[in-house]
Amino acid sequence: MKKKLPATTIAAVFSVLFSAGAFAAQTIYIHAHRGEPHLAPQNTPESISLAFELGARMIETDFHLTKDGTIVCMHMRKELRDIWGIDKEPKDLTIGEIRASKLAHPEKFDKRYANCKIPTIDDIFAIIPKDKSFELEIKTYGDGFADKVEAARKKAGLGYKNILITSFAPAVIKDFKEKYPQYETLLIVSCPQKGKLAAKEIIKKAKYAKASQVAIGNYKKLDRAYIKEIQDAGFKVGLWQVENLNDLAIAAKLGADRVCSNYCAKLRADYKRIKELNME
Question: Is pLDDT at 169 greater than 50 in this prediction?
């Protein structure tokens, strides 16, 4: 027997997702953020594999170029400290520290994840299914980064379609794209807490970066006209983070092409249940 969603949730989401055909003419893809970080340690092969097993089509990941030339999958210093107990910048890691890493709090996760380690680019690329894809967000860029990504792609037997190159820095995307134009690229932006970044500014930055997609954070104060202006300029638009059905309803109203979530599997399941209820 399927667990019923709260009546208030169903009513609130129905009004946006299905009134006026909000989803009639489009499909919003729900992608995973760093794997399934509430079930397995984020940005690890284990978390990413789990997200794929639970139905994700695309997963966002983060990469730094370290001082000894290794590309490591890790978000930022806070996560390195909180998850792995190493208080330094990811870019300053050595390959020895990466290989010797252990979870600082293994008790937070199922025991099957107790032996997780900080992964390198090769560790991540090795577990990407050939029929799925992932976002490679560049956190620390430098000489040789693009070449190392290309080498890792070839080693893993992945195609260009498996990898979406992303960054907050237009110049980084532009440089990577000029080196390897075969990759699709995405510019990440976040609207300020106060005021609003004009859609035309996002379009300008994305064109400079030679990106084909943009992903917008802090999106809840935007409107449909804002998103449509960017889409009409030729860019697919994603939103982050979309954590529950109410957030997804907002994304639908805005007309997003896709969303990124820390709760991808749960959100996809809840959305599927909503659609099933709508058919009853």
Answer: yes
